[in-house]
Amino acid sequence: MKPYNNRAWFLILPVILAVAFSAILPLMTIVNYSVQDILGPGQSVFVGTEWFQMVMRDSELHGALLRQILFSLSVLAIEIPLGILIALTLPAQGWRASLALVLIALPLLIPWNVVGTIWQIFGRGDIGLLGYTINQIGFSYNYSANPIDAWVTVLAMDVWHWTPLVVLLCYAGLRAIPDAYYQAAKIDGASRWAVFRFIQLPKLRNVLMIAVLLRFMDSFMIYTEPFVLTGGGPGSTTTFLSQYLTTKAVGQFDLGPAAAFSLIYFLIILLFCFVLYNWMQRVGTGDAK
Amino acid sequence: MMSKHITRPLLALYLLLSLLPIYWMLNMSLKTNAEIVGTLTLWPQNLTFDNFRTIFTDPSWYDGYINSIIYVLINMVLSVAIALPAAYAFSRYRFLGDKHLFFWLLTNRMTPPAVFLLPFFQLYSTVGLMDTHVAVALAHMVFNVPLAVWILEGFMSGVPKEIDETAYIDGYSFPAFFVKIFLPMIKAGVGVTMFFCFMFSWVELLLARTLTSVNAKPIAATMTRTVSAAGMDWGVLAAAGVLTIVPGALVIWFVRHYIAKGFAMGRV
Amino acid sequence: MARIELVELAHAYKPNPTQPGDYALRPMTMTWDDGGAYALLGPSGCGKTTLLNIISGLVRPSHGRVLFDGKDVTALPPEQRNIAQVFQFPVIYDTMTVFDNLAFPLRNRGWGAAEVGRRVSQVAEMLDLTSDLKHRASGLSADAKQKISLGRGLVRPDVAAVLFDEPLTVIDPHLKWLLRRKLKEIHHELKLSLIYVTHDQVEALTFADKVVVMTQGEVVQAGSAQELFEEPAHTFVGYFIGNPGMNLLPCTVRDGAAYVEGNGIALSDKARAALKGAAQATLGIRPEFVECASAPGQGAAQATVSTVRDLGTHFLAEFQVGARSVAAKLRTMHAVPGETVWLRLPPERTLYYVNDKRVA
């Protein structure tokens, strides 16, 4: 069992200061705005929970929320298993491993608006490699007109963009498993599947939790890439939560409702993550944290 | 481990698919806008370096590149430096509020950075840090430090606590133990953390642009400025994309030995 | 139970080793008797773990052969060699219960549930793990986990040898003793060959019938604790074994006597003959055998007392002989620091080494 030691707080202090300095004040500001109706500079009226109620009743919000949930779940369902799989295929060391790591990491390094821009062209049936190829194969594919195509393209773009994150995390996690475990498994006559199931997967627990939470959060807040690619369309079929918020705030330039919605947005993510976090803690070994 | 006959082709396939859009971006960067939106060509028919030339002859782009590298490196070093002791504390000790604190850290990543725009602007203006590299580095710590703490804690918890105790019995002081024994054991985690801190800070454009004006203006400026009166400047955007890959690729190259197996788990 | 033979065994990382430095393990030939308990003792990096891994099959040697009961197993992987290995830190399957951990090797071989249950209960009983069988393995203490690691090795009835790689490293000191005793019990009961790697001489000397001392990839001596103590064949063995280790003093041989810092020590006939022709040699004598007198005598060396420590059962004294320091364990000690005394080195306990190898 871990020893109880309140002096550990000193080790944490720099982190708390750094993060709180940047986080708490803005949060307070947001909360402040969310309960006011700002009529003009210096003129505001306290309106309590009015904005929150208004936001919750907005049917467009419900649509965007459902689409967002579907998107994030799909992203997790594809990227996590794929990431683990690719991490397993990477060699443990050597020049091939180094080269592969660099190549795999490349999609992560492109600014997100450029990602969207590239895929805009890439996915076009007339001038893009992907679009053209799909049409040649026989599917009629048009991501600007067809909602399903738009979804597939946005998903494909996200998988391409972010699976490397899962790969890198899992790869590092695999490298942290001491040789002795593989050696003992050899001596025990374990099959390759048993090695994966009883040694690698359990030891990847920590890393996978980070990957799942991270990908969930980031996909739930995704804005730039789909906005640049489809603009939220066709219609509003690929309008996710973040875009909805931005449109509302920028379009109406109303800080009150925008702030309220930001808080609700944050609380939704918080709730999902909290549930995910606790569920993942319970799954697996019993001596977590 | 899976047989080589499965893993090699699988990996090769993945890399091939993964590199297609990158190749496409490179392709676009060497074409004129007319060619990009005109026809589908697998390589430039009218090869042109104009896009790159535009970037290289634009002094603000060159400066932006350097500025971005500066604040990203500051952020990376600071984030990892303060995350290490915190992660160790979370991993090795229980203390008042530890579970809640750990989760709270992650909640700082649960808001779109857009939400922080206005408050940050006001905050940094008041403190007089506007338009400095430090401002962006600090601002980015909001999302990088929690990530660093979470990843490092995960890797640290994988090292049995008995190793710590054995080291003390063998006479190591805490700093010596941490640097010579502990860190090498979690070096995969450190390597990956450094890369992710670099990456997330590098691609964050909104805050970086908002908090800077002249002195510390990052590449974000050019990235978002490439919509001219004639429409989207596809070629220049693609060229800029190509160039922004370079620093990150270098970072991964430098930490590759941390992430991949360098040497076996140390012996006390 | 297996008789293990190493024939011309060597391991080098480079394909064509020429110098001693190219070898991780220098060429050796050795036989380890069936059912014996052996310790591989040496400092970090001496090659003992490499040797252990070659015996277990995790490492394929670059030269030589390994034989189990006369059968050449050099090319065989670990699972086909009927060995078990216990590592420096507990290697268990976290997600399984203790029972499933112990049952794992048997299930992999296709054993039926009833047989598995019987065998696992048997081994658990032997290791005092019966009460923990239903518990998750990950929640137990380090020593229990090491017992599980050991149990997984013992659970296979055809296991011939159990190899230990510094298994007590992460165990609490007060539990180490219990675990060591348990290992000895198992050894007596099952009569398996046990090979135990350690850098702790106390562990090695108490655990094993025969200790193999290694340094820098070379086996310098293999023998019982007494042999290693009283007749170290190599200066390293003299220095490594014992607390404090043997005093090693460079000496020059002239006119039938060995001169240490100007003091002449008489040589026995045997020693004189062995050292003929050697100009430089090393004189070795254990602190336990150094005698201290207040008056000069035949063949005694003049020394100044540096420190004296009363350790209850004996005195640990340090002397300066010229530029060298000599340690001695004495029953009585009357001299005080700064005094001049004469150290007598009994010829029957004084050993001589040329180029680190014992000659007399």
Quaternary: heterotrimer
- Low-pLDDT runs of 5+ residues of chain B are 262-268
Number of H- or I-type helical stretches of chain B = 13
The fraction of residues assigned to DSSP E strands of chain B is under 5%
Helix segment tally of chain A: 13
Largest sheet of chain A: 2 strands, antiparallel
Distance between the termini of chain B: 28 Å
Mean pLDDT of chain A: 85
Structural class of chain A: mainly alpha
Q: What would you note in describing this structure?
A:
The complex is a heterotrimer of chains A (289), B (268) and C (360). Helix content of chain A is 73%, strand content 3%. With 289 residues, chain A is mostly helical. Chain A has a domain at 61-242: MetI-like (MetI-like fold). A two-stranded antiparallel sheet of chain A has the order 1-2. Chain B has two domains: 1-48, no CATH class; 58-259, Orthogonal Bundle (MetI-like fold). Chain B is built from 13 helices and two strands, in the order H-H-H-H-H-H-H-H-H-H-H-H-E-E-H. In chain B, strands 1-2 form a two-stranded antiparallel ribbon. The longest helix of chain B has 34 residues, at 59-92. The relative contact order of chain B is 0.15. Residues 262-268 of chain B have low confidence and may be disordered. Chain C has 360 residues and is an alpha+beta fold. Chain C folds into two domains: 4-239, P-loop containing nucleotide triphosphate hydrolases (Rossmann fold, 3-Layer(aba) Sandwich), CATH 3.40.50; 244-358, Nucleic acid-binding proteins (OB fold (Dihydrolipoamide Acetyltransferase, E2P), Beta Barrel), CATH 2.40.50.140. The longest helix of chain C has 18 residues, at 173-190. The model of chain C has no long low-confidence stretch (mean pLDDT 85). The interface between A and B is large, with 95 and 111 residues.
